Amino acid sequence: MTLSSFFEYDYTILPLVLSVCTGFIAFLIAYLLFKKVSVRRNVFLLVGLSDSGKTQVFSKLINVNKKTQSYTSIEENTFNGKIPCFSKEISLVDFPGTLRLRSRLFSKWLTFELNTIRGIIFVVDSSTFTKHARDIAELLYDILIKTKSSIDIFVACNKQDILLSKNKNVIKTTLEKDLGLINKSRAASLDMTDGSRKDELLTETGENFKWEDLPRLKIDFDEIIADLEEDSDKAINIDSLTQWINDVY
User: Fold this and answer.
1) Which residue from 110, 181, 198, 219 has the least number of CB within 10 angstroms?
2) CATH of the domain at 164
3) d(CA 177, CA 158)
4) Per-residue pLDDT tens digits for 116-157
């Protein structure tokens, strides 16, 4: 009996065969896409304001013993490969902190390349934190909006060797308060419109924002020293950061 004559006698089997084939193809496509995304998600993105020490952190992650000259850049620093302190090959991206490149950070890395990011290293200059706290909070707020709390974040409280640097607890508490104030001001701006863009708010708790309002968010604060002032009695220390990368990777 030929295949055509078989279907002449049983028309019900053709939709079944088509359904099975369609399901298999859909499963195969989903599997390949998942595999592709999971393989590529190895980027750790370093962000922060200018002069926060991102490039020093970037360099010390690659080679803790290498002395690097700090400078303001308008180009990304990238590294792809194996680093002894990490068990897998890793991609590091040091994105410039200058304000005029901020739109590229969000349009490229936090939109188009978002699925490649395993973790975000948010570098803060602890020695000038009080002066720039609101600007730091604004950047962190927008990052949290774009990532929707789906990516692990390490707030690296850098330059702890400098006298009067703020510790991690002060930085965490202050940012919590400032994120609440930003929440309040942006909610007020939305109230002046039709109020339909609620996705631009981190939460609806206004200035009463607490870290606990973001239950999906995995954010760690710790103190590091990626470079030393002259005559400092401290030592380079990025151990908490390398441990965090190993934990999330």
Assistant:
1) 198
2) 3.40.50.300
3) 20
4) 999 999 999 999 999 999 999 999 999 999 998 889 999 999
Q: Do 80 and 126 sit in the same domain of this protein?
A: yes
pLDDT tens column, 18-34? 777 677 777 767 655 65
* Same structural domain, 18 and 58: no
Q: Which domain holds residue 98?
A: 43-248
Give the contacts of 48 (CB within 8 A, at least 6 positions apart). Answer: 54, 97, 122, 123, 124, 125, 136, 139
Q: Are residues 33 and 64 in the same domain?
A: no
Whether the model pTM is above 0.85: no
